[in-house]
């Protein structure tokens, strides 16, 4: 009753092809942005901002990157954490080695460095597909982390390989409170997510999807495979790189190369499976789910069972629940939570009189 | 030169063990077209279950700890657990996903990996354990005297066990009724079904055999490096082996294993010092990747033809 497009007439092509064609969606989206930009920083506690909302946003960005590559272009990657590492360490070095480097510029350059590395490791995708490619991206995962560990130049010769992020300073304003860091992250993520949404609606995204659905057929109708695949690798790695930089600068503060390990890559993969493969919204839902689940489990376990459990039981239970959920989602709803949301919207359009 | 051979033989022996893990992948991939990422977790599950039983059995049955009875009973129980796990996986995870794209199945087995890792540690605890097969890890004296080479007795015996296993499996595949049915299913599901081969039983058997291979691999790897979470990473080392050998070839898994094992050790010794060492962690992957650029289907894999 409330959510339907009856009476909203499109008079031009431009109106017909906007991001949110339905007015209710537009209003809802703006309200959502207003909520997260204005209300949340005022009401949320420091813990929520720092330990939950900021990482959710950062992981959403990384999941978005992987989703572009895996969900839209169909190239399975198990090395997203490595591209995050490239972004984080490149940003660190740009900040460190170039005097007066603006932070946003450094993040941009960090993302571009990750994109360059992504293109390099995307080259095999022209020859190999499927599982084979997944294994090739594992090469990226191990190789990049090894390079960052073995060449101390990248971590500015710190003895443990740990880098400490410099203070973020934009136009004289220091971002050192959780609120400001959260807002900065939110801003970057919003801009990049809108860009991604537009990319996948445009020619670029349609080419990716054509390649995903059948690359030989895509080639036959005149899509240049090499360009399209490498573009997907570059854009995806850029997103992961920026996420990595934010991970170091606005979330953790100190990172080491081993932090960007295979487990993190798998976690990002899980986010897109649970959230929805091939969906922008899904990246956010999946990231929120994966970050919140351990927190939620912890609370539940502590309040119901108490300390009677053997040590490590919680983390094992977490592994089992993660694994079980992955399988559950793949069997029951292969398109993830985003698909559930979509089904809900379809239902809402007919409510309360479904035919 | 002696040193070179020492490294080479050491590498080949560890390659046999990689091949052992890769074999589990190949068996399942051949029969059901599933790329079972959980093979590494199954190795860990098998080893930890075995060790767990050797710890609790003396208390339950009053048998002497460390005796042969405990060993074989634990072995049997662990094998049974593996078969149950395999069949349950087939029924609960893979059956509902029939006809899904292979990449979906692959992701499901990643989920399965996490589930198995959590499950087995929830049952037996998180602590790392030792595992003794009663074979000492000392150099073979004869080799030391004759050629001045240090070759571990343990590695040699482990490789011997693996080779026996390969031969037994090859014979099973080649000369028995079940083996013939397995090959038929691997070749073409539909055709196998139409001549009356029970697909469900065959899949159950394959998962059981893969569980058995995982148990052997788990025992050997566990005795070598201790039974701990890191055991699951052996599966990752088996991936480049698979790529080299091709996903569908048992001899390919063995030869791929030997190549990866030997080349990574040689690279570590002869190339490592130039770049700071530790290249073992990524060298096999890069090698496999470069190899793929030349021959995308692996050494013995089936040639893939793209059709629209």
TrEMBL record, chain A:
One of its GO terms (cellular component) is plasma membrane. This is Branched-chain amino acid ABC transporter permease. Signal peptide: none annotated. The lineage of its organism: Bacteria, Pseudomonadati, Pseudomonadota, Betaproteobacteria, Rhodocyclales. It comes from Pseudothauera lacus. It is found in: Cell membrane. CDD domains: TM_PBP1_LivM_like. PANTHER family: ABC TRANSPORTER PERMEASE PROTEIN, HIGH-AFFINITY BRANCHED-CHAIN AMINO ACID TRANSPORT SYSTEM PERMEASE. One of its GO terms (molecular function) is branched-chain amino acid transmembrane transporter activity.
From TrEMBL, chain B:
GO terms for biological process: amino acid transport. Keywords: Amino-acid transport, Cell membrane, Membrane, Transmembrane, Transmembrane helix, Transport. Its main location: membrane. It holds the Pfam family BPD_transp_2. One of its GO terms (molecular function) is transmembrane transporter activity. It comes from the Bacteria. InterPro entries: ABC_transp_permease (IPR001851), BCAA_transport_permease (IPR052157). It is found in: Cell membrane. The chain crosses the membrane at residues 6-29, 41-60, 72-93, 105-124, 150-173, 202-221, 241-262, 269-294. The keyword Kinase does not apply. It is a multi-pass membrane protein. Signal peptide: none annotated. One of its GO terms (cellular component) is plasma membrane. Belongs to the binding-protein-dependent transport system permease family. LivHM subfamily. PANTHER family: ABC TRANSPORTER PERMEASE PROTEIN, BRANCHED-CHAIN AMINO ACID TRANSPORT SYSTEM PERMEASE PROTEIN LIVH. This is Branched-chain amino acid ABC transporter permease. It comes from Pseudothauera lacus.
């Amino acid at each position: 009753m409330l959510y339907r497009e009856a009476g909203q007439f499109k008079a031009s092509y431009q109106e017909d092809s906007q991001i949110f064609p339905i007015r209710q969606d537009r209003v809802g989206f703006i309200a959502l942005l207003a909520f997260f930009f204005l209300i949340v920083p005022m009401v949320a506690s420091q813990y929520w901002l720092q330990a939950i909302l900021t990482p959710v946003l950062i992981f959403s960005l990384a999941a978005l990157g992987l989703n572009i590559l895996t969900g839209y272009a169909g190239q399975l990657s198990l090395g997203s954490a490595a591209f995050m590492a490239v972004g984080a360490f490149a940003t660190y070095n740009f900040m460190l080695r170039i005097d007066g480097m603006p932070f946003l510029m450094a993040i941009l350059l960090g993302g571009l460095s990750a994109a360059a590395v992504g293109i390099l490791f995307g080259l095999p995708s022209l020859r190999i597909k499927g599982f084979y490619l997944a294994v090739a991206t594992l090469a990226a995962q191990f190789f990049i982390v090894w390079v960052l560990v073995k060449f101390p130049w990248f971590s500015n010769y710190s003895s443990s390989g740990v880098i400490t992020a410099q203070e973020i300073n934009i136009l004289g304003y220091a971002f050192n409170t959780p609120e400001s860091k959260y807002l900065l992250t939110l801003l970057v993520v919003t801009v990049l997510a809108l860009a991604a949404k537009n990319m996948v609606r445009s020619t670029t995204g349609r080419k990716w999807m054509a390649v995903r659905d059948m690359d030989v057929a895509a080639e036959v109708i005149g899509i240049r495979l090499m360009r399209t695949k490498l573009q997907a690798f570059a854009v995806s790695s850029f997103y992961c790189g920026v996420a990595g930089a934010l991970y170091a600068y606005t979330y953790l503060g100190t990172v080491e190369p081993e932090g960007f390990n295979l487990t993190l890559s798998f976690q990002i993969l899980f986010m897109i499976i649970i959230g929805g493969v091939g969906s922008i919204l899904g990246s956010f839902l999946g990231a929120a789910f994966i970050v919140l689940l351990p927190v939620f489990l912890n609370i539940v376990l502590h309040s119901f069972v108490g300390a009677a459990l053997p040590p490590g039981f919680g983390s094992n239970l977490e592994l089992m629940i993660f694994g079980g959920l992955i399988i559950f989602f793949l069997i029951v709803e292969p398109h993830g939570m985003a698909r559930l949301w979509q089904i809900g919207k379809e239902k809402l359009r007919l409510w309360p009189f479904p035919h | 030169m002696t040193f070179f051979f020492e490294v080479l033989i050491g590498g080949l022996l560890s390659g046999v063990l990689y091949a052992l893990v890769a074999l589990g992948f190949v068996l399942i991939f051949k029969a059901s077209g599933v790329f079972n990422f959980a093979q590494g977790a199954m190795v860990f599950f098998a080893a930890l279950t075995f060790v767990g039983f050797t710890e609790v059995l003396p208390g339950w049955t009053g048998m002497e700890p460390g005796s042969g009875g405990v060993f074989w009973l634990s072995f049997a129980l662990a094998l049974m657990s593996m078969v149950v796990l395999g069949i349950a996986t087939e029924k609960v995870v893979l059956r509902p996903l029939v006809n899904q794209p292979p990449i979906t199945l692959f992701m499901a087995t990643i989920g399965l990996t996490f589930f198995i890792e959590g499950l087995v540690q929830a049952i037996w605890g998180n602590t790392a354990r030792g595992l003794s097969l009663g074979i000492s890890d000392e150099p073979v004296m004869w080799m030391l005297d004759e050629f001045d080479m240090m070759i571990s007795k343990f590695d040699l015996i482990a490789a011997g066990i693996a080779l026996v296993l390969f031969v037994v499996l090859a014979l099973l595949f080649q000369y028995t009724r079940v083996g013939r049915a397995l090959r038929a299913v691997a070749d073409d599901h539909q055709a196998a079904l139409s001549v009356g081969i029970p697909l469900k039983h065959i899949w159950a058997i394959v998962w059981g055999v893969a569980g058995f291979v995982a148990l052997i691999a788990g025992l050997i790897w566990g005795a070598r490096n201790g039974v701990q979470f890191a055991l699951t990473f052996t599966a990752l080392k088996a991936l480049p082996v698979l790529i080299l050998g091709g996903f569908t070839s048992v001899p390919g898994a063995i030869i791929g294993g030997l190549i990866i094992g030997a080349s990574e050790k040689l690279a570590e010794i002869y190339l490592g010092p130039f770049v700071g060492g530790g290249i073992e962690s990524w060298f096999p992957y890069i090698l496999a990747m470069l190899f793929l650029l030349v021959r995308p289907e692996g050494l013995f894999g089936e040639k893939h033809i793209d059709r629209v």
